[in-house]
């Protein structure tokens, strides 16, 4: 047997074995790793969340909440957030609903997605209704923002626009751009 042929076969076998060893020891892609299980799940619950001063920041009701142990965030199915009116504020509490919710690890940011509806009353007791597909709520700061289409309805007025900045305490709501107003006469 030719020594060149033998050395070539040995080198090919060594290269194949090295390649196989390298391939089997590689890091698996993140998608291939098993999804982490939640460290807890709440079903059909009500929870009152307190702020740093020990006062109610908001109440949450939902059929299901799961908490991710790796980043301490929470995913919520069809949440209802009740944000109380602060003493001396303009109007009543807020009721905010959506299809999905997400809360950051610190609990100071809530992202609501899918058919978001926020309802309250102004200082005169008249309803304020906001509808959008995305709303980010910052309960400790009493603020809300959105970068998508928003409809805001008050008696006699319907405002539509793109984006929103809201002070939930004072009920000062600013639509950012493409604002259109429609006025409707009161029914007598």
From TrEMBL:
InterPro entries: LipoPS_assembly_LptC-rel (IPR010664), LPS_export_LptC (IPR052363), LptC (IPR026265). One of its GO terms (cellular component) is outer membrane-bounded periplasmic space. It is a single-pass membrane protein. It is found in: Cell inner membrane. Transmembrane segments: none annotated. Involved in the assembly of lipopolysaccharide (LPS). Required for the translocation of LPS from the inner membrane to the outer membrane. Facilitates the transfer of LPS from the inner membrane to the periplasmic protein LptA. Could be a docking site for LptA. NCBIfam families: LptC_YrbK. HAMAP family: LPS_assembly_LptC. This is Lipopolysaccharide export system protein LptC. It comes from Lysobacter enzymogenes. The gene is lptC.
